[in-house]
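Exercise: predict the structure of this protein bound to xanthosine-5'-monophosphate.
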Amino acid sequence: PILIVDFGSQVTQLIARRVREAGVYSEIAPFSSAAEAFARLDPAGVILSGSPASVLDSDGPQIPDVILNSGRPMLGICYGQQALTHQLGGEVLAGESGEFGRAFIEIEETCALFDGLWQVGERHQVWMSHGDKVTRLAEGFRPVAASAGAPFAVIANDAKRIYAMQFHPEVVHTPDGAKLLKNFVRHVCGLTGDWTMAEFRKTKIEEIRQQVGNGRVICGLSGGVDSAVAAVLIHEAIGEQLTCVFVDHGLMRSGEAEQVVSLFRGAYNIPLVHVDASTLFLKGLEGVSDPEAKRKFIGKTFIDVFEDEAKKIGGAEFLAQGTLYPDVIESVSFTGGPSVTIKSHHNVGGLPERMNMKLVEPLRELFKDEVRELGRELGLPEVFVGRHPFPGPGLAIRIPGEVTRERCDVLRKADAIYLEEIRNAGLYDAIWQAFAVLLPVKTVGVMGDGRTYDNVCALRAVTSTDGMTADIYPFDAHFLSSVATRIINEVKGINRVVYDYTSKPPGTIEWE
Ligand code: XMP
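Solution:
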């Protein structure tokens, strides 16, 4: 395997992801426990991440000596490069300006990282984000590429098989970055690249068995891909020790609840408790129009219902969740303060504390598309695996203002038409998420020879890789107008349709 030492960069998980894409298993360890991880894993190579810290600070994190002196191949990225240089006797200084964003490097010499990829004299785009920079190399290193702001953009010590770069190869804005990382793990570290999702499945099943022992696990299904994949994986690991609970809050899309129930009970034969709590949720939402109040009420009520069901099955020591990497805020933090709450994402994170349960989260290190791949590996049907994400609070946050059963029904119909048209046009998989929003705004229209005075429906469709940033999907006007016509003709209560042209940021994907 490869050991990735995390110095607290925002993008350390992307390094792990690129290594997985190169068919190699890796583990991430925070720098503070990297020495133990190194001893346990006996890795073929080590990658040192970036960091918001500075090696010039007295408390800047260090590469543990056992790793530094191990003789194993190493790759330092950004802070990793500076730490290597600093600790091996070179010099790092605070840059006066720094480089942030797109930069170009010129290849000056060949090295193992560039095999089959970059030639001397070429210029390549990379993504930089640094203030400090290396100003004198440690002994045994030579520069192999330079940028305008960093004369030592890539450095190599061939004898010791240590390489380092000032830029970030793990991000997509370094177009050849994934290949550089692949060259490191395959050519420099000599790993064969035979690790696959099938291996991940096996490893995780073993880990789940170890963690759970004879304990009972309860898993909340949301109807989405993540919790379904987690549940199927855990069921494969521990069978009957798992109980799934599907809390139907009445805020699901058309046909959604039925699909989940039939998938679990039918195709997988996994015991599933289906709770119809729609009345409870919709009653509680009466008169509530503030977005955060809606989210909090739904989150809390979800926990109440879930807790009741857990008691009925006689309790469980473990709670399984389909938490993905982008949901995990943990990592090593140097900034101290919590990030600003834009919106309170619904999850069952409040549960373990209240119910005194331990968490089983087998998908914690994966990104959405990797979870889909694992779902396919587990045999989940493509229509399910490929589904657009759907938020826990459901349609409630797509109905600004008060949520009622009637408004949910109107929105469900419009949403179903929109998605059917998207599927028919073959666009579903090109879009990260598409949905309709029902606005609490009435406008005047004319239908037949009569006046109408009805609600506005907004359509949203975005592309994204992780939901953190998003761009609007550029439908052609023809497509949008035919969807609008269908919705207005077929859904009573809507007489006008608009399209949302806001990217994220500044907008969020959901409207609330
Ligand atoms: P926003 O609206 O924050 O959404 O740009 C980003 C992604 O997260 C989904 N989302 C949620 N998912 N519980 C969830 O499970 C939530 O409370 C929640 N809020 C937003 C949203 O659908 C999009 O994919």
